[in-house]
Specification:
This protein is mainly α. Helices cover 66% and strands 9% of the residues. It has 2 domains: 59 residues; 111 residues, Helix Hairpins (Orthogonal Bundle). The radius of gyration is 38 Å and the shape is flat. 11% of the residues are buried.
């Protein structure tokens, strides 16, 4: 009788092990099924998202505005200044003489001050009620372009006073023009 009970216990252990193994296998298969089911639903949702379900009326389309003259010029001006600044920094690092290094440093300082004064003048002109303005500082002159269809004599005087005060130049060295 002892032999039969040991044999039954070993057989029951093997059967239990098989059931545990079968349960694990079913869990793995169920997980794989759910994973692929989710992946298929995501793909289906992406393809459905690409379908147009409603006709678009032309009034609903928002036109993309191209950058205006003022924005384009500022971007170009910043790009040129950045390139010039990089070149001057390279000269400072590899200067053949102390004089060349000092001249490059002075050029960077001058360019930085010009940029600050141009921005200050542009902001002060906009504060006078104009939509936008660009200011270009040259050695002994300043050019300004104001965003408006036309300038009255009083508006030209206002802009010239702002530029003269910030730049220190005489009104005869300032050119002001309008651009819509």
């Amino acid at each position: 009788m002892k032999i039969i009970s040991v044999f039954s216990i070993n057989k029951l252990g093997k059967i239990a092990s098989l059931f545990v193994l079968l349960g694990i296998l079913l869990l793995v298969l169920n997980s794989m099924y759910n994973y692929f089911q989710d992946a298929f639903e995501v793909r289906a949702n992406r393809s459905n998202a690409m379908q147009v379900s409603k006709q678009i009326v032309s009034d609903q389309i928002v036109p993309v505005m191209a950058p205006d003259f003022f924005t384009e010029y500022r971007l170009e001006r910043d790009k040129i200044r950045s390139e010039r600044s990089d070149l001057l920094r390279e000269i400072i690092q590899n200067a053949p003489s102390p004089d060349a290094k000092q001249q490059a440093q002075e050029s960077i300082l001058k360019m930085t001050l010009e940029k600050q004064r141009e921005m200050e003048m542009e902001n002060l002109i906009k504060a006078k009620g104009f939509a936008d303005a660009l200011v270009f500082i040259r050695d002994n002159s300043v050019n300004a372009v104001v965003k408006t269809s036309e300038l009255t004599r009083e508006e030209v005087i206002q802009v010239a006073e702002v530029i003269s005060r910030v730049s220190g130049l005489k009104p005869g060295d300032i050119t002001i023009s309008a651009k819509p």
